[in-house]
Amino acid sequence: MNDSPPDLPALISDARRIVPDDRHIWCTASETFDSSIVQRRGLLLGGAYSPHFLRDSTAMSWDIPWAVRLRHCRVVVCDQAAHEPLAAWLPLMESVAGAGESLLVVTEAIGSELLQTFVVNAFKGTLPVCAVHPLREQQGSPTTGTRFATPPTAADQLLRIDEVWVRRTATACFPNADNPLSSAAALQNFAIIETGGENHEDQYERLRFLLRELQREAT
Asked: Could you read off the pLDDT of 146-156 as tens digits, one per residue?
């Protein structure tokens, strides 16, 4: 797509009037030929640790370029735990995978062996997993939340969020209405641009344009 689709810059401008910054603007494929903006409430976190988490392939069920979606996601916030030996994480990884769920690890830093293991599992599809940075605002305060000094051993010890969307610069967590987190004060407004297209390929190129614009502004 060489030229800017005439309707997409206008949609981005409309979305920017709804939310505080581009980290709160996300995009997805519309079920119709039309494009529109819908609003959701969610929790904002930092972006992914590795580009290998962000699969860019129309062969995947989640056809958003340079982004990944985790469903039925267990969330662990940690610092020291992310530097524990890989063996300490295996019980939790096996528990999450056995339950058919996914795993989101939120940490300031992470050991190289653990990060590589997460990447391999995400790539092979043996465990849907992603490691992301905590949210840091301008004053430098990290994401709030209970931090685990050692990895939990079972999935049911962790908060479960229905949908988590991750890209290079930001992560959006969308809890179900019946989730205790759904009424939390930390939830913010998100603008979701649902874009249509003349066909699947056109729709995918429109999504790529949106992601390029949003990533450029957030860099």
From this structure: 678 899 999 99
